[in-house]
Amino acid sequence: MRQVFKINSVEKELTLNPGDTLLQTLRDNGYTEVKCGCSEGECGACLVLLEDMPVNSCQVFAMSVKDKKISTVKGIGNLFHPHIIQKAFVEAGADQCGFCTPGMVIASYALLKKNPKPTKQEINEALDGNLCRCTGYVKIIEAVENAAAILSPKVI
Amino acid sequence: MMSHDLQWYYPEKISEALKLIQKEGVILHAGGTRILKTEPRNLKGFVDISHLKLNYIKKEVKNIIIGAGCTLSDVINYCKKTNSLDGLCMALAETASTPLRNRITIGGSLKDFPVWSSLYSPLIALDAKLELAGVKELCSLEDYVKKNIIKSKHIIKQVVIKDDKDIICRVMRFNLVRFEYPIFNVAVALKVKDKVVMDSRIVITGVKGRFHRFKQSEKVLNGSTLTDEVIAKSTEYFVPKFHHDYKYSPEYREHIAKVYFNDIVKELKEDMK
Amino acid sequence: MFKYVNKRSEKIDGLSLATGEEKYTDDFNAKDVLYVSVLHSGYAHALIEDIDDSAARKMRGVVEVLSCKNVKRILYTTAGQGFPEPSPYDSALFNNVMRFVGDNVCAVAAESKEVADEALKKIKIKFKELKPILSLRESEGSSVKIHDNDGSFPKIPVFYDADKNIASKVEAEVGNFELAYKSSTCKIEYDFYAPYANHCAIEPHASFSYYDLRGRMVIVTTTQVPFHVRRIVAALLEIPVSQIRVIKPRIGGGFGGKQEVLLEPIVAMMTLRTKRPCKLVYSRKEVFKSTRARHEYETSFRVGYEPDGKINAFHLDALENSGGYGSHSLTVLSNAGSKTLPLFNKIENVKFTGKGVYTNLPCGGAYRGYGATEAYFGFGQVVDMICNDTGNDIIEYYKKWSIKSGETSPIFQALGEGKEGVAMSIGSCALVECIDEGAKLSGWYDKKKLYSVDSEINKGRFKKGIGMVALMQGSAIPEIDMASAYIKMNEDGAFNLSVGATDLGTGSDTVLAQIASEVLDTPVDKFIVYSSDTDHTPFDTGAYASSTTYLSGQAVKKAAEDIKNQILQVGAEILGVEFNDVEIVDNKVVLKNGKEEVSYAEICQYSMYQKNQFQIQATASHVSPKSPPPFAAHFIEIEVDTFTGIIKVLNYVAAVDCGTAINPRTAEGQAEGAIVNGLAYALFENYYFSKHGRMLNDTLQKMGMYTSWDIPPIVVKLVSSYEETGPFGAKSISEININGALPAIANAFYNATGKRLFKAPFHPEYVLEVLNSAKLQENVYEVLET
Q: Which of A59, A76, A93 is the last residue of a domain?
């Protein structure tokens, strides 16, 4: 079947099956920036924003969010117009293999939008759904702290 | 893998939804997380609840009323903002993960009652009641499970919790890392007046029979000021029975549950001051 | 001292990773792709008597079914190692005997993943169940033979005895252990247990194959060893190596788990048969059950020493669980000795013995630490025990007895990888500085005073302790691993740098560019780095054995030096002076003591278009005569809840000598990642099995991975030294830091409670048993039996 979705501020008609998850639907239609690490709602590599809320797209049926604004990591910033959070990740060395990074960026963005000056504890809580095996999280937390320090609530 | 000819329904009235789920293979869809985990067989259709306007939280008379469509995050945010239901808030804040809490609904979580649920123990301790669609009388959460209403075709409309500042509640869960499902959740709620326990409810989930209330232990606490002696006595009656689990022996879990129960009551004693 | 090296450069792929632009294997696709699904054995040990795939083949959308029935039996090892591999040739692509739960039964290629999965259910297989071996200790000499006259053989001349289920065996001795042990005043003997572990790279294994426009096989795959993939797939498909191109796109973490050739031959065989693009992506459960793990280990230590602490005799015996196939069995085993024993090189009588045995449990493979992690668990505690027993301060003890710059250990020569090792003396070594630095940063002496079994602070339920350990590892496999690089110059003065080295998230593309930058005095962004494509980059053995910075880095440095000479030559020609009159400064060739200069761009344009034209280009290879060890000292402070047995890590300090850190930021990242991985291995990660050998905790949640919420404060301090044989003084850093958590936590636990932990992980139920046991120091197996 075909269905229109609002992705990264653009209305797109996507092909999908009614039982498909949002993750399958996005990846099958070329949004490969949304990564699949487990399909079980555990790793967080597939995070997208639904309205302003991060969710595991592998745990969401696509047909249940057809009316909602969906944003992938590219909706936050792209190679030519990167978001401050994305730059902060690079500057801090928070990306090693990078597979978890889109999800991490999404979770960080949602946090800073809600809470521009988070404590370390609040950062840890906001990232509790994102697994990373490369970094030991040290530089990821540093990146979010740095981004928060740069960002004023208005910019985000 | 889900069937390709699944039907999606988006009713705007609860009565309509109730009618739809009577059909064979048609189930209610709230957040969808449990459906994806359990992949029910012979699924023919989903009745999506997002248009039923069940995502509200309000104070009414002496109750806090939570619509079944609220996500765990909605409840946490409300509790933090209004400074209410501390114990429930703390338990939910540790449940699953941030992105899953944005998706898991109260109704869906109650209907499915996974063994690792962090929602049940505080809600039973707080003596929460459910309003089911099309049913006039409220049903206690305990009865909902015990009388197997949970297995029937129904729609939870809202959860009703007493808004009583004299009730204090704490919850503890056992897991080694945040991300691991807890092997049990212990919740203790006390109604306190002038530093004396007027009433108490002690609940554990993750045990044989899904949940257990320790009425003997409650009896010991009631009317007391939580002296060390009282705490020790109530712990004696706190003997949860666990299923076999590959990570921990039942004996170990029983031991840890006792330690945690003790810790909670001691913390509550501090809270009473 | 350096301009581009030893700088915290951003990763060259950083922004494209953070914006989701980079492509990983599963992000490649073709419109006529076939989806491949693999059926994995539910039996730990079974003979396939018959396979009937006719019903599956009749299904709409099913294109091909592969099994032992229709795939030629060619023995190989799945280990992605140099040729000839030191791992036994004991597996075919599809075996007719299933040797662990998760072993490959057959595979289906179909028009959709759903149809492929459905088709697997329609394949009728007649299994004959065989008695399994589900314990490490029951394997050797069992009447159950796991490779029973199946033709398995060692590819190199080493001990191998499939009749006794022995996949590998190592023996080495320096001096005379037994004699010296007998005559020692003090003797200790302890056993330790280290469990299975999974790499848990966030990207699951995936492979995608297709024919290019001229009918050559292309394989895009999640690999650490693209050149080994090409060689092995060619052998299994019986086509020439030149007919295969392996592309390594971005890799979502490896840690050794992708040093294994598992999925590639399946998709390639499907493409060969169907002539269509084929894709196989493993689910997380398949990664857990069917790929490779850290080997399970039992280690036994026997040490004879004198009351002043001097060790006379040291014996490490290791028993390794290889699982169903002997991938990396021999080399991991050798490394258990060769990466630990040389640390105390002054011991005159040292013995290492070990066996790797087959069982019907998951297969071991390469995993960060590679045997050293398992061996340091006991090694680090034995040292602590001797210090406690003899009243030595462990800090001073390590400083006195550990290997130093200019010294050697006979073990280096005695223990190689399937053959004799390579004698070497230690070049750079800043272990003493690491120990001092770590002691200072962790507040070692103050805390050591504060914490003990009897101290006031440890009277209650919660007890605190601090422990430390010193470590070494290696950098590349000497005289075996080879790396090469190619550089060419472009007319704007920028360069293409092609390397066979495989960046799997480590940042090696960036690190290698920094090395070339330093030689050519040109910014990092002037290098267009392309890595690991068997058609377009020169050979490299792959990203393993802590080799990329040290080995591939030196190849890059050599190639860059060649380029530098060519640039100077052309520059001198343009300026009309002699070669010796010019030098390079900031993308320019300048006259020494003069003002004339010519830019790189002008030089390249000249060499391309004007006179004596040629392409400024160079290629270089490197093999190392030694494997210089990085060193580290780890300090861990813990709190034990004696009511529950839960150990909480309060602080972790690691001081690490990796020579010159080419990129301190990525080097720190390597250390931090390894530390957290090591902590998880020490505290909770494990494989739980059903009584039939099925892994029970086969999801990330059930494995219980760390999130940012759980990690303790971690301080990594890089202590520099200069390794003459490495590029700009560099050694490795990727593996060493996974080895510290097990022994240092156990030592801290002893400091807090006076009891020893012999069995990893330090699961709270086990810890509580230890705490409640009457004896002060218990052996692991006694505890297990009570």
A: A76
Whether the per-residue pLDDT at A53 is higher than 70: the answer is yes
Q: pLDDT tens-digit profile of C100-124?
A: 999 999 999 999 999 999 999 999 9
- Looking at the structure, do residues C268 and C300 belong to the same domain, yes or no? no
Question: C200: closest CA among C257, C278, C251?
Answer: C257
Q: What 3-state DSSP class applies to C597?
A: strand
Q: Could you give the ipTM of this predicted complex?
A: 0.97
Note whether B2 contacts A17, CB cutoff 8 Å. yes
Domain co-membership, A11 together with A72: yes
Q: Give the count of Cβ contacts less than 8 A between chain A and B.
A: 84
Q: Domain holding C75: CATH number? A: 3.90.1170.50
| φ, ψ of residue A136 in degrees (nearest 5) | 70, 15
pLDDT tens for C208-255 read 999 999 999 999 999 999 999 999 999 999 999 999 999 999 999 999
The rounded distance, in Å, linking the Cα atoms of C745 and C393 is 18
Name the residue facing B176 among C114, C684, C700 (closest C-beta).
C684
Question: CB within 8 A of C731, min separation 6: which ones?
Answer: C428, C475, C549, C550, C628, C629, C630, C657, C658, C659, C721, C723
Cα of first residue to Cα of last residue in chain B, in angstroms, is 54
A141: closest CA among C710, B249, C351? Answer: C710
Cβ–Cβ gap B102/A41 under 8 Å: no
Q: Give B96-108 pLDDT, tens digit per residue.
A: 999 999 999 999 9
A78/C253 Cβ within 8 A:
no
Whether residue C763 and residue B181 make contact (CB cut-off 8 A), yes or no, is no
Name the residue among A86, A97, A140 with its Cβ closest to that of C253: A97
Instruction: Tell me, yes or no, whether A108 and A68 share the same domain.
Output: no
CATH number at residue A128: 1.10.150.120
Q: Which of B178, B248, B256 sits opposite C710 (nearest CB)?
A: B178
Q: Which residue of B has its CA nearest to C684?
A: B176
Contact C704 B252 (CB under 8 A): no
Q: Which regions of C201-261 does DSSP assign to beta strands (E)? A: 206-211, 217-221, 244-247
Q: Answer yes or no: do C78 and C120 share one domain.
A: yes
Please indicate, yes or no, whether residues C516 and C642 belong to a single structural domain of this protein: no
DSSP state of A45: T
Tell me the shortest Cα–Cα distance from C644 to chain B, in angstroms: 6
Query: Residue C244 and residue C535: Cα distance in Å, rounded?
Result: 9
Q: Are residues A50 and A110 in the same domain?
A: no
Which of C623, C656, C679 is the C-terminal boundary of a domain?
Answer: C623
Q: Does residue C456 sit in the same domain as residue C513?
A: no
**Is the pTM higher than 0.80?**
yes
In a domain, residue C236? The reply is: yes
Residues A64 and A91 in one domain: no
Position C170 in a domain: no
Which strands, in side-by-side order, build the sheet including B185-193? B167-173, B185-193, B196-207, B210-213
What does C24-44 look like in DSSP terms, one character per residue?
BGGG---TT-EEEEEEE-SSS
Measure the CA angle with vertex C496, ends C495 and C499; round to 5°.
135
Which residue is associated with the tokens 């530089």? Answer: A139
User: Residue A36 sits in which domain range?
Assistant: 2-76
CB count within 10 Å of CB C159 equals: 13
Q: For B259, how many CA atoms within 13 A lie in the half-sphere containing its CB?
A: 17
Closest C-chain CA to B175: C704
- A7 and A60 fall within a common domain: yes
| Number of independent structural domains in chain A | 2
Tell me if A54 and B29 make a contact (CB, 8 A cut-off).
no
C268 to chain B, minimum CA–CA distance in Å?
Answer: 26
- Residue range of the domain that includes C438: 296-476+626-785
Q: Over B32-78, what HEC string results? A: CHHHHHHCCCCCCEEEECCCCCCCCEEEECCEEEEECCCEHHHHHHH
